[in-house]
Amino acid sequence: LIPACNQCLSSLSNSQLPALSLANNWQLGNLPTCLSELTIPEQLLISSYRTKMHVIKLKQMAGPGTGQWALKGNSITFPQKSFHTVEHIPAHINELPEIMKIIFVGIRKPTKEDLKKILQVRKSKVLQAVSFLRKHHSYYKKKEMNETNVKCLPENDIPESLWSTISYIED
User: Is the dihedral of CA 36, 40, 45, 49 positive or negative?
Assistant: First the structure.
């Protein structure tokens, strides 16, 4: 079964496309800022479904003759074959290394500052996103906030449990 709202289920049971479905040429539009600015680790912490593994390969890139460099990467998600959903949000910060693997390829090991923009977890952003989802998404209204897990979230840093598992390959 695929989770659907009552309005969509009603349309489908009457053999009609739901009014707000992508198949009916309805576009999602812009995400609210509180969701669009989340990093991948933040998204995984508040996801109602858990992936089996999310692999990110980051490669250090430098412009010709410049001292500037950037990151280029790929992200692969391996979903579980079950429809197990979470009961509480957010997930515990120590669960990230179980569902996320970072591989960095470059001429030197990255510093936390190098990867902070991509991998940081910001407690305030996670709480804003959860608050928005619980207010505007019927599925999240039923989810309980796990205060113990919230207390473990960093204020604005890459979680140590994730940082300590990053693999480095010299390029």
Answer: positive
Cβ atoms of 73 and 58 within 8 Å: the answer is: yes
Instruction: Tell me the longest C-alpha to C-alpha distance in the chain.
Output: 63
Token pair 């669960």 is at which residue? 95
Query: Cis peptide before 97, with omega less than 30 degrees from 0?
Result: no
Using alpha carbons, select from 33, 52, 46 the residue that is nearest to residue 140.
Answer: 46
- What distance in Å separates the CA atoms of residue 121 and residue 34, rounded to the nearest whole number? 13
Q: Quick: pLDDT tens for 129-139.
A: 999 999 988 88
Q: What is the pLDDT of residues 58-76, one digit of tens each?
A: 887 776 565 566 777 777 7
Global pTM? 0.76
Q: Could you report the per-residue pLDDT of 23-52, keeping only the tens digit for each?
A: 766 666 678 899 999 999 999 999 887 777
* Residue 139: Cβ within 10 Å count: 12
